Amino acid sequence: MAATKKKAVRKAMKGDRIRQVAAIPFRLNALGDIEVMLVTSRTTRRFIVPKGWPMKGKSGRKAAMIEAQEEAGVLGKTLKDPAGTYTYWKRLATRFVRVDVVVYMLAVTEELTNWQEAKRRQRAWLAPADAALLIDEPDLSTLVRTLRVPDAAPSDESQDQPA
Question: What is the mean pLDDT of the chain?
Answer without folding.
Answer: 87
